[in-house]
Design goal:
Strand order of the largest sheet of chain B: 6-7-8-3-9-10-12-11
Helix content of chain A: 25-40%
Distance between the termini of chain A: 38 Å
Number of strands of chain A: 12
Largest sheet of chain B: 8 strands, mixed
Oligomer: heterodimer
Structural class of chain A: alpha/beta
Number of helices of chain B: 10
Helix content of chain B: 25-40%
Largest interface: A-B, 43 and 51 residues
Order of helices and strands of chain A: EEEHEEHHEHHHHEHEHEEHHHEEH
Number of strands of chain B: 12
């Protein structure tokens, strides 16, 4: 299937002032390669500060890259000017859904106006606008649309508001969508609805989706592939089924262990956790960046950075001890 | 009497322009010494209001319409606020508020914030208060030197530990935790949960754990109380509510909505939205969203039926 987005060795560095004269480099993304095909969702999973949101924004060219390249349908967009991006209609074809369904909708605008705004900005005719808005509202199941266009955001539940956000992103007919934690602020009873909706719309409209989340359990239901990030790098990536069934990187294994499941047998039982917190990206550890929190780190991990190597078909891991973990010679938990 | 807390027929309403919001509408339960109870519900279910009522910290537009709260056998809603604060706040019952880790005073050292109630409520000298605050900091898994740090120097997980230390410094017997981990990464959440489990054991605390997440509840709680629209819809031991089939359709659907890491089930969702508590639907409050709804549910409000040992559910499916 056709590739929609491709990132090649993408780096995003920020210069951060420290003190009066000094400055430090913050490496938000440090050499990330990733691709997303049509009708495919790739989940990017990690703790706050791992660079997952930066990755989303760089892939949309909402941020410029420091190094590396970003391709949209085969064309390098990483150094295109804003005019070029517009001229080629790339801006329309790439959209984002934000996390917070409460603050991302203007409370004084009706739903119909919120969803039609992008079309007006791009100079569509009135009949086209009506047609596209109704279609988008139907796609997100805010039906009948004529009932919702005149409502205001405060009349809707959190889940419904997030569907308005999705409709707004859909209305220009994008081929690539970044969904940045789209359900983390929504009540548990509506989360599944939004996630399943995203999946069905993706298939219907044949889009590629980058799903950014800290919740690896939700990634399971919406994504075909998964990339686990740690401090600006991919620690493990592969088919979602493969990574969740046979996690290899100690970080992935412990991340999976941190997810609570509704089983009273776990009560009061302390679970193995990742000790400490992610180190500052301003001062990342040498060698493997995870070595300071890794229960199976050895001397080599402190000095030598592990490469991302394919251990199973399509399943890549950046860990010096991957073979031993796979063979069961050592245990992470 | 072995009950640390008994709540009887509690009703707490908010005054708003649209009329009274019946946030807590006839809630009764008890908490034994050393027991942990999870109160599970979505936004607007009344779970946080319930917590605030127990520690007498309701906002000005809320009032207790009726009901009684007994702590160690004494009715506390009828006490004057100053009496309650002097005798109960912090030293018998304390609460970790939702979002408290973001409400620490930014210009005070976190250690001084922990020591404060000891000095002003506990009549302890400054020296002694500092020593005890340092002990608490150590107890929640941070180095003693963190006493001298300011909130902005700490990560979210560390600030949450500080807030837990604050709630425990007067050595309370009952601790209420309101969504203590919802703003944290799962890795840090797991660390905080381990800490809470450890503290429950060491101090044989009675704990009320307020959360929207049934999976988290199962990690901590002996008993689970599910709230919907200001009422208890199911209450029972964790084994009964989660282990066997849940007895209330809302609990069942909430459980089915959790994304799992294992197994083949696909998460479900509950169509519709929680009730408007200024004018809740007639009959069962869950009936507009319930897949098993029948005629009676629309007309008559179900009572809590006994469905097993210490297990109740508010659903006509269990009626005669």
């Amino acid at each position: 299937m056709e590739e929609v987005i491709r990132l090649e060795g993408v780096k995003k560095y920020y210069e951060v002032r420290s003190g009066l004269i000094g400055s430090k480099i913050l490496k938000a993304l440090d050499g990330v390669t990733l691709s997303i095909r049509k009708k495919e969702t790739v989940a990017v999973v990690g703790e706050s500060g791992c660079g997952k949101s930066t990755l989303g924004r760089v892939s949309l060219r909402l941020l410029d890259v420091t190094d590396g390249r970003v391709f949209f349908k085969g064309q390098d967009i990483s150094r295109m000017t804003e005019e070029e991006l517009r001229e080629k209609s790339f801006r329309k074809k790439m959209q984002i859904i934000f996390q917070d369904p409460y603050s991302s909708l203007n409370p004084f605008m009706r739903i119909g106006d919120i969803v039609s705004e992008p079309l007006e900005i791009h100079g569509y005719r009135r009949e086209e606008i009506r047609e596209a808005v109704y279609r988008a509202l139907e796609d997100v199941k805010l039906v009948p649309p004529e009932e919702f266009v005149n409502r205001y955001p405060h009349e809707l539940s959190g889940g419904q508001r997030q569907r308005v956000n999705i409709a707004r992103a859909l209305v220009l007919g994008p081929e690539y969508i970044v969904a940045d934690e789209p359900v983390s602020m929504i009540d548990a009873s509506s989360r599944a609805e939004i996630l399943l909706l995203l999946k069905s719309i993706r298939d219907k409209r044949e889009m590629g989706v980058l799903y950014i989340t800290h919740d690896i359990a939700t990634a399971r239901y919406v994504s075909e592939r998964i990339a686990v990030m740690y401090l600006g790098e991919i620690a493990e990536t592969g088919l979602t089924t493969s990574v969740l069934k046979t996690p290899i990187h100690p970080y992935t294994i412990l991340l999976l262990n941190s997810v609570p499941e509704p089983d009273p047998a776990n009560r009061r039982r302390k679970r193995p956790v990742i000790k400490g917190e992610p180190p500052s990206p301003l001062n990342p550890p040498s060698g493997c960046k995870f070595h300071t929190r890794c229960p199976v780190a050895i001397e080599r991990c402190r000095t030598e950075k592990p490469a991302l190597i394919e251990y199973m078909p399509g399943h890549f891991v950046a860990c010096h001890r991957a073979t031993e973990i796979m063979r069961g010679d050592i245990s992470v938990t | 009497m072995s009950e640390a807390l008994v709540v009887e027929e509690l009703k707490v309403y908010y005054r708003t322009e649209k009329g009274a919001v019946r946030a807590v509408d006839g809630v009764s339960f008890s908490l034994a010494r050393g027991e942990s109870l999870a109160i599970v519900g979505e936004s607007g279910s009344g779970k946080s209001t319930l917590g605030l009522t127990l520690i007498r910290a309701l906002p000005a537009n809320a009032s207790v319409v009726s009901g009684r709260v007994y702590i160690n056998g004494e009715e506390t809603l009828s006490l004057s606020l100053s009496d309650f604060r002097r005798r109960y706040s912090w030293r018998v019952i304390s609460m970790v508020f939702q979002g408290a880790m973001n409400s620490l005073n930014p210009v005070l050292k976190v250690g001084d914030q922990i020591a404060e109630p000891l000095i002003y409520n506990g009549g302890v000298s400054r020296e002694e208060a500092r020593r005890r605050a340092m002990e608490m900091i150590e107890l929640v898994g941070l180095p003693r030197e963190f006493y001298y740090r300011y909130p902005h120097e700490l990560s979210g997980g560390m600030r949450q530990r500080i807030v837990i230390a604050m709630s425990l410094v007067m050595n309370p017997r009952i601790l209420i935790l309101d969504e203590p981990t919802s703003a944290l990464d799962v890795t840090i959440q797991a660390q905080i949960l381990n800490l809470v489990k450890d503290l429950i054991e060491r101090f044989s605390l009675s704990v009320i754990f307020i959360t929207h997440d049934l999976a988290l509840a199962s990690d901590i709680a002996d008993r689970i109380m599910v709230m919907y629209g200001g009422q208890i819809v199911e209450l029972g031991s964790a084994e009964r509510v989660l282990g066997e089939a849940p007895k209330h359709p809302y609990t069942e659907k909430l459980l089915a909505s959790i994304p799992r890491l294992r197994g083949e089930t696909i998460p479900e969702f509950i169509p519709g939205r929680p009730p408007d508590l200024t004018s809740p639907p007639p009959g069962c409050r869950f009936h507009p969203r319930c897949p098993y709804v029948f005629d009676r549910c629309r007309r008559e409000e179900p009572p809590l039926f006994k469905v097993g040992e210490g297990h109740v559910a508010r659903c006509w499916l269990h009626g005669e």
